[in-house]
Each structure stands twice: as structure tokens, then as C-alpha cells.
Amino acid sequence: MTLIPSNPSPPSPSAALPFQTWTWRGFPICYQQQGEAGPAVVLVHGFGASCGHWRKNIPDLATSCRVYAIDLIGFGYSAKPTPGEAIAYTFETWSQQLADFCREIVGGPAFFVGNSIGCIAIMQAAVDHPELAQGIVAINCSLRLLHDRKRSLKPWHQRIGPPIAQKVLSVKWIAQFFFNRLATPKTVRSILLQAYRKADAVTDELVEIILGPSRDIGAVDVFVAFTRYSQGPLPEDLLPLLPCRALLLWGSEDPWEPLNLGQEFAKIPTVDQFIPLPGLGHCPQDEAPEVVNPIVLDWILGKQRESKGLA
């Protein structure tokens, strides 16, 4: 089992906000917090990202909310224990982590805001722990298009590729070689330029936010564990079960999670609004915070007023 230091000091551009450590199941978990009053908001990153990915959102939301950005176990500057020994890297694990974080650090219920796979984690937390979920904001939710159930509906020649790749990556030296080729500034920048539509948003600062945690011991094993995780819940499983209302935002130019597929979620009764964001990619909260922040803040404060009977 491998751990990061209990007091992480990542070389992050969001260092103006101190990194704090919370111990969960014996493992150090990294998070940031800003804001002293208002509803609690918990921000959850996507695959390969961290709380630093919310650096452009935290200050604006903190003007009216108590904002927390957390690194899921296995990601960012949180611990990366060996998969299967003490931690299974599943949405149920992250759901429990978020619930315990709300109870022990936040001090009660919160609005959950997620991006990409972070959306699945927050939906699972809301379903598993309904007393802690005041609302869900999902930004370009992962559709999990490589999930076993979705692959089973494809022609056979489209089904065989992912399992073969997963099997190959289970060979440790191959996984290490592949990861080393992937975890370079040039490759990370190239991937981000696919995900983002505004090239000027892909800065050296952002590249380091993504790349920094990949240098931790254990990062390769977590990467392999997640790339082999093609089971568990789909968003269409969880959205109808939510105990609270949901706001869905979607960058219309997302190359990985197509807008036309995401728009189907607007038909689910728990979804309050589905708002396309023209010209933006997979991470609109970072690409255009001036667009996303007001929408998220207005919706959260509106829901808060409704819950108090003030709407």
C-alpha cells in the first residue's frame, strides 16, 4: 500500500488557497475551502484532475457559499493506495468518501457540483446518502460509453477492442511504459487541446495541475484500475433515483461526451434544467468560468431560497 505525505504541498497555481488534509480510513485526503457563510457546496473533479481544476470557480462561488473542493481518493494529491488492498476504486467508494467528508468536514448537507466522472460520483453519493444532498450540478457528465452494458449493444468488431486494451494494461511493465508516455507535458497539452475549444485556456498552469499528481507513487496503479473499471452505475441509472433536483450543464463542443446524447437526460423528471453551453468543450467550468459560475451560483441560491420557502 502506498501513501502520499500526510501534509501535501503540491506545486499548484491555486496555492493562494491553502491545501488542507483530512484523514479518511487512515488515508490523507487533500481539499481546499473558501467562504464563511451560505449553503455548502462540494466540488468534485473528473478523471485525472483534482481540486485545482476548480481554481477559477471557488472564489466566485465563495462570495455567497461555503465552498469545498476535494480530491477523490486515488486522484490529485489525495492518497493512492494500491487497488484492491484497502480501497476499491469504484463510485460506491467515492460516494462514501463524499458522505463522510460532508459529515466530518462540511458539517452537514451540501450541494454537489461535478465534472465528467465526478458527476457519477456525486450522483451515487446523493442516491446512497439522500439526507446529505441538497442539489446536484452535473457539468458535462461522463456517459461511460465504454461501460460493459453499452459495449454489449455494439457490433462484435467494436466490442473486442476495449477488453483487449484493458488486458494489455494489466501487465505492469506495459502499463508503466504507456503511462510514462502519457504523463508528459506535450501529451497532456495535446489531450487538453482536444477537450477544450478555447486553446488559450490550455495554459502551463493547467498542464501542471493535471500532470503534477501523476508523479505520485501509486498513480500508475490507480490509472490502470480505473481504465479497467467498466462496470458500476451509469448516469441514466442514477438520475431518476436522485432525492434532489439536478441542473445539467453541457459544453456543446465536447468531443468525448456528445451533446445529443446528454440532452436525453433532460427528459428525466429529477432534472430541473438542461443548459447547453455553445462553443465550449468538456470542462466548461475551467474554459469559461465567467459563463458557468453565475449559472451555478444562481441555481444553488434559488434552490436554497426554495427550501426555506422564500421563493
UniProtKB/TrEMBL annotation:
Pfam families associated with the record: Abhydrolase_6
Presence of the UniProt keyword Lipid biosynthesis in the record: no
The keyword Aminoacyl-tRNA synthetase appears for this protein: no
Molecular function terms, GO-annotated: hydrolase activity
Domain AB hydrolase-1: 41-293
SUPFAM superfamilies, A to Z: alpha/beta-Hydrolases
PANTHER family: ALPHA/BETA-HYDROLASES SUPERFAMILY PROTEIN, ALPHA_BETA-HYDROLASES SUPERFAMILY PROTEIN
This protein's name: Alpha/beta fold hydrolase
Organism annotation: Laspinema olomoucense D3b
UniProt lineage: Bacteria, Bacillati, Cyanobacteriota, Cyanophyceae, Oscillatoriophycideae
